[in-house]
């Protein structure tokens, strides 16, 4: 395994070009996952990709997995700090597939829902559907996105050592650490992802490549 330091700016440029140059029909819509714990800041990386992709002529829609959670009655069935429920039950995969990923399949209409559920109010966001034009790119960020048979054209996994993850996770969220460790050992997202980036310090990323 090779770990090669790269600047955040160069990482964004590399990813934008890789997304833009994905093979296939030039008009197809692309679904890209930026997978990682909150401490790895996957949302920030996904946000940083928006403008470079638009400059390449790609319409972009950002979506966060945190807006596609199940109702509190499901998420908290085993308590508000159950790591297995956090890993297994919080994400509403059915809603994410139905409202976002499946409408971007080749030949589908491209009409997607940018948000679905507000965990603060525990109610539907009542968001309006948006049209992602041909050549458009969906950028989805969140934890535990790999190994669920969700369809993506490109997956990026942000990995951290256990020590770095614990150091960068707020104390009141330390109950989630065992869920992330379980994800690492059971799913092995670094092996599943098209590209893995080590972000023990998100300001100093490094590409991880298998020999």
From TrEMBL:
Lineage of source species: Bacteria, Bacillati, Actinomycetota, Actinomycetes, Kitasatosporales
Protein name (Swiss-Prot/TrEMBL): Uridine kinase
Recorded GO MF terms: kinase activity
Keyword entries, A-Z: Kinase, Transferase
Provenance organism: Kitasatospora griseola (Streptomyces griseolosporeus)
């Amino acid at each position: 395994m090779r770990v090669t330091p790269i600047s955040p700016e160069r990482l964004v440029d590399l990813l934008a070009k890789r997304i833009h140059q994905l093979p296939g029909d030039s008009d197809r819509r692309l679904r890209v996952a930026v997978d990682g714990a909150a401490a790895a800041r996957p949302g920030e990386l996904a946000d940083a990709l928006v403008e470079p992709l638009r400059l390449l002529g790609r319409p972009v829609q950002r979506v966060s997995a945190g807006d596609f959670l199940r109702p509190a009655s499901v998420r908290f069935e085993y308590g508000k700090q159950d790591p297995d429920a956090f890993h297994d039950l919080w994400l509403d995969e059915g809603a994410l597939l139905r409202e976002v990923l499946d409408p971007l399949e080749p030949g589908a209409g491209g009409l997607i829902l940018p948000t679905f559920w507000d965990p603060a109010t525990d109610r539907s966001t009542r968001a309006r559907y948006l049209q992602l034009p041909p050549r458009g790119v969906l950028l989805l960020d969140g934890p535990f996105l790999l190994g669920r048979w969700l369809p993506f054209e490109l997956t990026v996994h942000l990995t951290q050592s256990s020590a770095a993850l614990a150091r960068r996770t707020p104390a009141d969220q330390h109950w989630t650490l065992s869920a992330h460790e379980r994800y690492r050992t059971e799913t092995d997202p670094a092996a599943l992802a098209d590209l893995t980036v080590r972000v023990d310090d998100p300001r100093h990323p490094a590409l991880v490549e298998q020999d």
